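Here's a chain:
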Amino acid sequence: MTRNLEWRVGLELSEDAGRTKAEARLDTGQATFTGHGTARCNPADTDVPVIGDELAASRAMKDLAGKLMREANREMEAAGAGTVPQHTGPGYGWPEAVS
């Protein structure tokens, strides 16, 4: 059986007073998931807006991915299958306490 699907992800960014907010939305055609992320510029740092965009967008997509994984786990459990093992800590990047 061959299946072809197209899922669309939209990403909106806004910046105000040194804080960038991002919202990532995934439309699967059957459900919609939304992830959120923020970034702020340290007042002592040079303001480089693209860095805030990248950080906020990546955090929104990470949040979105987590929500999609939790939904898949719920559906696997409902179908009687096991779930994907969860990691206990960050696998990359800075820990949340530092960012």
